[in-house]
Every structure is written in structure tokens, then in C-alpha cells.
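can u do me a favor
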């Protein structure tokens, strides 16, 4: 059996090699671009500064608005506004998500004349206790989420939301 390579086979192998190299050189950037968001670090432990001074907090929840700068959504970066209800319980700072656990409306502290000292969701009269516990017999099926909290230079910084640990 001869192991000689004919001129035709040599040219064919060479063209396939060069063609394959060129194809991979063109495809690699496209593949890299397509999967780029997946490769980015998620920044899960990230805390966002807020304008709220920790010393100014009382036992009455106050609305704290903050902005997440350059939030990356796939290929797009934008600033995202967010809100928390923040108060003190002893020395502990508690920050609750305002997102209703029924259908996602925004809950307000004492948002209804009849329900003092509660969070109230105007969409379907959802009610929550101060610690975020949903009041049985109202539409929400679970407690409000909590934000992770830390204090930096006297200001409240908020992290990701976690399931409520107070109820
Ligand atoms: S969305 Fe809040 S009670 Fe329905």
C-alpha cells in the first residue's frame, strides 16, 4: 500500500486547512459577541449607595429611592431606578422591597386611610404588616422581600433582594 499523497489530494488538504482557518477566524468574534453577556461577572455581592443617612432613620418606614448605575441587560447598559422602604428596629436597619407579592404593584406605607401602621397595595387592597408579612385574607401570598443592607460612611447601601427573614 502506497502512502504517497497525490498532487490533487495535497491541494485539497491545503485548501481545506486554509478554508477552515479563515472560517474559524471569522466565526470566533461572532461567537464571542453572542455569548459575551454570559461571560460577564454578575456582581451579586454589589451594594448600591443611597442618599439615606442611617442616623436619620426611625421606626417609621421611609421611602428611599436609589439608582443602579450602568445596569447591564445583555448588551445594553442603562441606569435603573429602584425604591425601598427602610426603617430601624432597635439597632438593625431593615429595607423592604416595595414589590407586591400578588401581581407586582408597588406597596406604600400607610397607603390607605383605614390601615395605619401597615403596608398597603392599592391594586387589589393587599396588606402587609410592618415587617413585610402578608396579612391573611388579602391577595398577596407571601411576605415582601428584603434588601441586603450595609452602612458605609453613615449612609445606607442596599444590595440584592432576598426572601424575607423577619417573618
Ligand atoms: S398586586 Fe398588590 S394586591 Fe394585587
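np, heres the sequence
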Amino acid at each position: 500500500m502506497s502512502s504517497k499523497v497525490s498532487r490533487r489530494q495535497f491541494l485539497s488538504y491545503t485548501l481545506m486547512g486554509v478554508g477552515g482557518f479563515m472560517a474559524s477566524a471569522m466565526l470566533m468574534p461572532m461567537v464571542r459577541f453572542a455569548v459575551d453577556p454570559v461571560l460577564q461577572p454578575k456582581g451579586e455581592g454589589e451594594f448600591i449607595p443611597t442618599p439615606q443617612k442611617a442616623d436619620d432613620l426611625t421606626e417609621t418606614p421611609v421611602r428611599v429611592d436609589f439608582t443602579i448605575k450602568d445596569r447591564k441587560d445583555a448588551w445594553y447598559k442603562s441606569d435603573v431606578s429602584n425604591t425601598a422602604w427602610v426603617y430601624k428596629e432597635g439597632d438593625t436597619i431593615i429595607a423592604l422591597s416595595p414589590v407586591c407579592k400578588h401581581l407586582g404593584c408597588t406597596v406604600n406605607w400607610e397607603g390607605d386611610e383605614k390601615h395605619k401602621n401597615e403596608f398597603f397595595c392599592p391594586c387589589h387592597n393587599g396588606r402587609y404588616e410592618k415587617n413585610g408579612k402578608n396579612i391573611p385574607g388579602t391577595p398577596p401570598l407571601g411576605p415582601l422581600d428584603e434588601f441586603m443592607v450595609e452602612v458605609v460612611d453613615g449612609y445606607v447601601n442596599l444590595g440584592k433582594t432576598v426572601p424575607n427573614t423577619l417573618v
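The longest helix spans residues 7-39. hope that helps!!
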